[in-house]
Amino acid sequence: EKHCLVILRIVCFLLEKDTRSTSIQAADSTAINGSITPTDKRIGFLGLGLMGSGVVSNLLKMGHVVTVWNRTAEKCDLFIQEGARLGRTPAEVVSMCDITFSCVSDPKAARDLVLGPSGVLQGIRPGKCYIEMSTVDPETITELAQVITSRGGRFLEAPVSGSQQLSNDGMLVIVAAGDRSVYEDCSSCFQAMGKTSFFIGEAGNAARMMLILNMVQGSFMATIAEGLTLAQATGQSQQTFLDILCHGQMASTFVDQKCQNILQGNFKPDYYLKHIQKDLRLAISMGDSVNHPTPMAAAANEVYKRAKALDQSDNDMSAVYRAYIH
Amino acid sequence: EKHCLVILRIVCFLLEKDTRSTSIQAADSTAINGSITPTDKRIGFLGLGLMGSGVVSNLLKMGHVVTVWNRTAEKCDLFIQEGARLGRTPAEVVSMCDITFSCVSDPKAARDLVLGPSGVLQGIRPGKCYIEMSTVDPETITELAQVITSRGGRFLEAPVSGSQQLSNDGMLVIVAAGDRSVYEDCSSCFQAMGKTSFFIGEAGNAARMMLILNMVQGSFMATIAEGLTLAQATGQSQQTFLDILCHGQMASTFVDQKCQNILQGNFKPDYYLKHIQKDLRLAISMGDSVNHPTPMAAAANEVYKRAKALDQSDNDMSAVYRAYIH
Amino acid sequence: EKHCLVILRIVCFLLEKDTRSTSIQAADSTAINGSITPTDKRIGFLGLGLMGSGVVSNLLKMGHVVTVWNRTAEKCDLFIQEGARLGRTPAEVVSMCDITFSCVSDPKAARDLVLGPSGVLQGIRPGKCYIEMSTVDPETITELAQVITSRGGRFLEAPVSGSQQLSNDGMLVIVAAGDRSVYEDCSSCFQAMGKTSFFIGEAGNAARMMLILNMVQGSFMATIAEGLTLAQATGQSQQTFLDILCHGQMASTFVDQKCQNILQGNFKPDYYLKHIQKDLRLAISMGDSVNHPTPMAAAANEVYKRAKALDQSDNDMSAVYRAYIH
Amino acid sequence: EKHCLVILRIVCFLLEKDTRSTSIQAADSTAINGSITPTDKRIGFLGLGLMGSGVVSNLLKMGHVVTVWNRTAEKCDLFIQEGARLGRTPAEVVSMCDITFSCVSDPKAARDLVLGPSGVLQGIRPGKCYIEMSTVDPETITELAQVITSRGGRFLEAPVSGSQQLSNDGMLVIVAAGDRSVYEDCSSCFQAMGKTSFFIGEAGNAARMMLILNMVQGSFMATIAEGLTLAQATGQSQQTFLDILCHGQMASTFVDQKCQNILQGNFKPDYYLKHIQKDLRLAISMGDSVNHPTPMAAAANEVYKRAKALDQSDNDMSAVYRAYIH
Fold it and tell me: In the UniProt record, does the keyword Oxidoreductase occur (chains A, B, C, D) (predicted)?
C-alpha cells in the first residue's frame, strides 16, 4: 500500500504540473527529491502552536537557521534541541533575524504580538521582513502592513491552509500576498513547509482568500457531521455511509480523515474547533462588509457555537459532530 | 496525461481492494479488463432521463437484452438503434422481462409508474424482479416493496450516487437494499453501470442512505457556490480560489468539475438542480421524522429554492451559484 | 384591573368595528352581551383535544345541541355531563347530525377520520355539512373537500388561530373557506367559539392562511426564546427584558403570556410544541411548492426539532426555550 | 376613533401602574398631564438623526436649555429656530453644558465622536455628565465609560427602543445603565423624550439589553415579511393576512404599523434597515462571545444582508420585505 501511495503522489504531481498556471510555485519539490537549498537569511519564528511547531521543524530539517519565541517558553525546548536558538521577546527575535514569521491564534493575538510591549515593532528596522502566517481578518493585515512598512520593514502575509498533520509533513498550502520580494526571499522556507504556494497580490488578499477557504471547510465539516449523525439517527451504519461517500465524487483526504477520526472518537486537535469558528465568524463579517449573504456559513457558525458551549473549543473541528448528538 | 489517469485508476483500485470490507462488490472490473459476462435474464428499463440513458447504454454495451420504455417515446429510438426492444407500457415491459429497473424523477413519478394505469403492478407475476433506482423517500420504497411482494414479485431498491457523466462512463456508485437474491441476479447489470455497489439490508435503507449522501452533496455544492461568490464579492480571483481549493485536503472530482463548470458558465444538467432540492427536502423531512436537526441542509434548501425561483430548476445543481449573484 | 380589562375589550371592539372590512363577521358579540341565538341544526363534534374541548364547552353553553366523539372515549364524559350526546363512531356522529366539526392533530389524523373504517365518509349523505377545523396542509383540504362533496356533502374548512385558553374563553379567531352557505349556517357556532371569523374563498385558502399565521407565530416564539436565553447568557435579568419588551411597540398578549409562562417554568400545553413544529414543516413545504424561500421558518423548524429531541413535544410551544438552554 | 385612543392610552397606563415593579420610572406622565418640570442643568445634544431630532424637539418643548451639534450643520437650523443654541464642535458642546447626550449611528461613529479631534473627551472636566444613547456593543460602552470617567466625567448609557415616530411623540422606551446619579439628574429629560425608563445597573448592561431587544425586533420583522410574501406567493390576500394577524394574540403596534406601511409600499425610514442589520450583527457577535447560539438572528441577518445588497440600507427596516420578492 505504501508503494501505491508513492505512485499516487507522483501521478498527482505530474497531473498538477500539467494543469496549473505559472503563478504557482511548485513548492513541493521536497516531496519528490527530499532536498532544497536553504536561504542563508536568519529566520525568526513567533508562535509554536499546532501549525507553527510543524513549520519550524521542517525549516530546521531543511537546514535553516531559526530563532524561536513562544508565549509559554517551555515549548521552545524541543526546538532548541533540534538546533533552534531562543529569542527572549518578539522584539529580540526580529532584531536578531532578517525574516521573522509569526503564527498565532487570532487577530487580537496577532496585533498584540506586533504592537505590545517588547513587540515585533520594537525590533523592526529598514529592510527587516515580517511574515504574518496567522489566519486573521483583512483589516488586521492592512493595519499590520501599515505599521511594519511605516518603520521601513517589508511585509508579507502568508496564511496556510492545512492542519497539524500537513504542517508536520511539510505539505501545507501557502497563500501569500503583500511584498513580492519578501515572497521570493522566503522561497526555501515555503518549500520546506509547504506543498505549494500562491502569491496573490496586495496585502489583505491572502487573508480574504484564506477566510473563504476556511469558511468552505468549516461549513463542509458541519455538513459531514450532519450526514453522519443523520445516518445513525435513521438506523444506518456510519461506516457504510463513509465507505459510500469515499467511493463517490466527493471523496477527498479531508472527508476520509475527518470521518475516520469521528468514527474512532478521536477528536485530538488537528485544527482547533475554536479557530474554525473564529474563521467562520470573520468570513461572515467580511461578507457583511460587502453585503454578501452567507447563509451556509451562518448556519455552520451556529452549530460550532453550540459545540463550543459543549466544551469542544480545544478539540479538533470535527468535534462539531458532538453538537449534533447532544 | 491520459496515461497518468490509467495509472491513477489502477492505483485507486488497488488501494480500495486493500481497505474496503467484503460487503462491497467490486463492480468496476469493467474498468480494468473491459468485459463482463452478461446475465441471460431479460432486462426491462423504465425511464430514460439523465441517469437512465447512460445506464441502458452500458447495459446494452455489455451484451444485455434490454426492453425500454419512456414517458416520451422518442427517447427510446436511440436505444432501439443500439439493439434495445420497445415496450409500449410499463406493464408490458414487466410482462416481457425477468428483471425490470425504473429510474424516474421523484416519489410521485415512481409511485405512478407502479400503481397507475398500465403500470408495473399490472405486469408483476410471482418471481418477477422489480428494481427501483430512483432516489425517493423510504416511505415510498416501503410502500412499493409491499405492493410488489404482495403480488409475488421480488423487490430491490438500488438508487445511485453520481451524475449523467458517471452514468455514461459506467462509474456510478450503487447502493442496494431489499431482496438479496435480486441483488445477486443483477450482478452483471450493476457491473455494467457502476464502479462499485453496496448491499445494505432491508428495503428503505438504500433510500435513507442515498438521501443523506445527496443531502451532504447538495449542502456542499451550496457552500462551494457561497465561497466562489464571496471570493468575487471581495475582489479575489475565482480561478485562484479554485486552484487553491484543489491543492488542499478538500480536493475532489466533485469540487473540481463543479467549479470548472461554474467558471465556464456551463450549467448543462449533470444532476438537475430541482432533483437535488427534492433530495434535500426529503432528507430534511426524514430528519424531522426522527427529531434530528439538520440546520445545514435547511439553509441549503432555502438557497436552492431561491435558485428555483430564478428559473434554474432544469439546470445543473451547480446553478445554485446563481442564487448568490442575483 | 378587571374593570380596566372590560373597558379595554370595549375599546378594542369599537376600534375594530370602525376599521375592519365587511367580510369579517363580528363573532364576538358574546363578549359584549353574553348571548347569541343558537342554530337549531344538530351539531356533531369529533376530537376533544386542547382546542376541541373549549369549543364544545362554548357550543353547549350557548345552547347548541351537540353530539361528541373522541378517539379515547373517556374524554367525552365531562361533556355528556354538560348535556352533550355520545356518538360511537365518526360515521354515527355524521349520521345523527346536520353539521359535523372535526378538530384533530395533523393531516394523517384528519384523513383517517374521514376515510378510515366507520369514518366520516360512511355517514355523509346529500346536504350533510362537514367542517374541518384542524390545521392541515391545503392538499389534504382539497382531497377532503373532494371526497365529501362527491357524496353530496357540503364542505367548509375552518381552522382557528389561538390556544387552549382562547378556546375556553370563546375568543378564537376563525378562518373559514369553502362552501359559503355552510359558513352562514354555522354562524351561531362560530359566535360561540370565536372572537371573530373570516371567510376567504375556496377550500384550501384557510389552510394556507393558517399555516402562514402559525409559521409566523412559531418563528416569533423561537425568536423570543432566543432573546430570553441570550439575556440570561449575558448576565441580564430576564424579567427586566420582558418588562422592557412589554413596554415597547412589540407588546402583545402573546409575548406577555409566553414569557410569563417561561419565567415561571410553566410549559403546560396551550398549543403543543409538536403541533407548531408540524405547522412550520407544512408551511415550509408549501413555500417549497411555490419556490418561495422561508429561511426564518427553516431556522425555527430546526430549533423546534431540537426541542422535540429533548422530549418537549407534548409541552407548550414555549418549551422551545429549552432547546436554547440544553 | 381618536377618543378611543385616549381611553386606550389611559387604560394602558393604569394597567401598567398596577403591574410594573418600582425600578421603572413612569416617565410618561407627560402623556397624561402634558407637563414636567425641566432640569435647570444645561443640556448638550450631539447627533440629529432620525432619533435625535425627535428627542431634541421634545427636550425643547418641555423647557430645557439645549445646545446642539450635528456632523452636517444644516440640520441644526431647525432646532435653533425652536430655541436651541449651536455648538461648533462636540468638545465645545461638552464644555458649554452640564449634561451631554449623543445619539449616532454605530460603534465607530460613537467612538470617533468621543475620541476624535475636537471630540467629547476634549471637553470633559470633573463632574461633566456624558450620556451615550446610541445602540452600540457593550465593549464600546465599556471603553467609553472608562475614558470619560478617567477624566473625572460621569457616564451613563441610555439607548432607546423605538422609532422616529415614537421619538417625535416622546414615547420612547429608555434603558439606562452606568452612573445612577446621572440617571437621576436627567429625570426630566427622560420624561420629555420617553414613555418609560429603566435603570439596570452597570455600564454595558443597557447596550446588552438593547441589542437583544433589537435582535428580537429584527428577527420578528423578517418573519413578518416572510409571512406576507408567502401569503402572496400562495395566492392569499395580504390585507386579509394582516387583518387576521391583528385580531389574534400577536397583535401589536409594531405588527400593525409595519404591515400597513409594507402594504402601502411606504418604506420611509422610521428605523434604518442598515441599523437593525448592524444591531443583529452585534447581537450575534455578543452571543458568540458567550457561546450562545442564535440561529434565528443568524438567519435574519442574512435576509437583511440581501436587502442591503438590493439597496435598501437607507429605507425602513420593513424594506426587508423586498429581500423576499426579488
Answer: yes
